[in-house]
Design brief:
The protein is of the alpha/beta class. The chain is 23% helix and 34% strand. The chain is built from 4 helices and 8 strands; from the N terminus they run αβαβββαβαβββ. It has helices at residues 8-15, 34-44, 82-87, 105-114, and strands spanning 26-31, 48-54, 60-65, 73-78, 98-101, 118-126, 129-135, 141-147. The strands form 2 sheets. The chain has a 4-stranded mixed beta sheet. The longest helix has 11 residues, at 34-44. The radius of gyration is 19 Å and the shape is globular. The N and C termini lie far apart (47 Å). The model has no long low-confidence stretch (mean pLDDT 90).
Length: 154
């Protein structure tokens, strides 16, 4: 005997010829403090706040994203316990965590330096584009990249 999955069977039949279209929309970034993180990302990196609302007295739901036409957003999450607090600034064990594409490396690199962003690896030309590594206020590593093929920007 087969177990009924209700309306799921009908949905699966209707969707079986639909091409896969998945999109990564949010990435969680652990922070020590909402306000200091917002100040850094909005004033130093010129990100915009997409959403900011209080879920409780101590928890907020905050989405930020860089300028431009991209759609992936960063969800700022305040570290709540010792395990989470130990990972703030080192969510990936010391390797680059996030990759910020730009259509004008020189413009953005200069603006970031002027805003006090610390670059830990100087700009270099790679087969895929121009790249430099910087760190955020907690020490997470980011790549600033201008792809060789500007059409590869999302």
């Amino acid at each position: 005997s087969t177990q009924s999955t209700g309306g799921l069977d009908l949905l699966m039949t209707a969707k079986q010829n639909t091409p896969v279209n998945q999109v990564l929309v949010h990435v969680t970034l652990l922070v020590h403090d909402y306000e200091e993180a917002l100040a850094f990302y909005t004033s130093k990196l010129n990100f915009k706040v997409v959403l900011d609302f209080h879920q409780s007295e101590t928890k907020r739901f905050i989405l930020i994203q860089p300028e431009g036409r991209g759609f992936t957003k960063i969800s700022l999450h305040k570290a709540e316990n010792e395990e989470q607090k130990s990972r703030v600034g080192n969510q990936t064990g010391g390797i680059v965590f996030l990759f910020l594409h730009t259509n004008d490396f020189q413009r953005d690199f200069q603006r970031m330096v002027e805003n006090g962003i610390v670059f830990v690896r100087d700009p270099v030309k790679q087969p895929y584009g121009t790249v430099a590594v910087f760190k955020d206020l907690y020490g997470n590593l980011w790549d600033l990249i201008e792809p060789s093929d500007i059409n590869s920007l999302p």
